[in-house]
């Protein structure tokens, strides 16, 4: 019965995160960890889930402790990099199994250490999977030193993956830096007028800034290019409703 309740709590946490209700998430996780009836049912998978939650919350030290209990060495490495513990991260990375995530962490360490000659190049898929996440957390941490390192590498990253700039813009958007995200997406729209995802993201930004008419326009542009894109349809309905209500 306890394990079932634990699973239900994790499901509730997932819903709260999707609603950006992080304060209640912290309370639930704290209650789980402080309740002895739950502790005995926490396995490696549970700790992995908790570690990912802490990472989402920006609780990096707590995430490291949970990743250790989850036996996720690369999770520990990634958080250590974000916290500027490069030597510790590098030592742990040597022991990690070969993977795409390991290569990305190797790239970050060499980039942030300024080792130009030793630096490996990330692959198209590594940039696709990890660039936005990395930039987002550097923004949360206000780690401008490492952020500027990545931005200075943007031209090289874009040669490997043309969506690199889009990933960085998305990171600014999710970090609440709406003006910067809008500026980058507008630049991208001028470069490529046939990318519906760019207009969808601009629509979301205008929606958050209460620019409902502009949001409607952006979502309509997105649907012209991506006619079956359900999120654009959903947000267009929302933007139209808000426009009508506020006029």
Strands, helices and their partners?
Blueprint: H1 2-18, H2 22-34, H3 36-39, H4 44-57, H5 60-69, H6 73-82, H7 86-95, H8 100-113, H9 124-141, H10 144-152, H11 154-160, H12 164-174, H13 178-191, H14 196-208, H15 212-225, H16 230-245
Overview of the structural elements:
The protein starts with a helix and ends with a helix. The protein has 16 helices and no strands. The chain has 247 residues and is mainly alpha-helical. The chain has helices at residues 2-18, 22-34, 36-39, 44-57, 60-69, 73-82, 86-95, 100-113, 124-141, 144-152, 154-160, 164-174, 178-191, 196-208, 212-225, 230-245. Helices cover 79% and strands 0% of the residues. Helix 14 packs parallel to helix 16. The longest helix has 18 residues, at 124-141. It has a domain at 177-247: Tetratricopeptide repeat domain (Serine Threonine Protein Phosphatase 5, Tetratricopeptide repeat, Alpha Horseshoe).
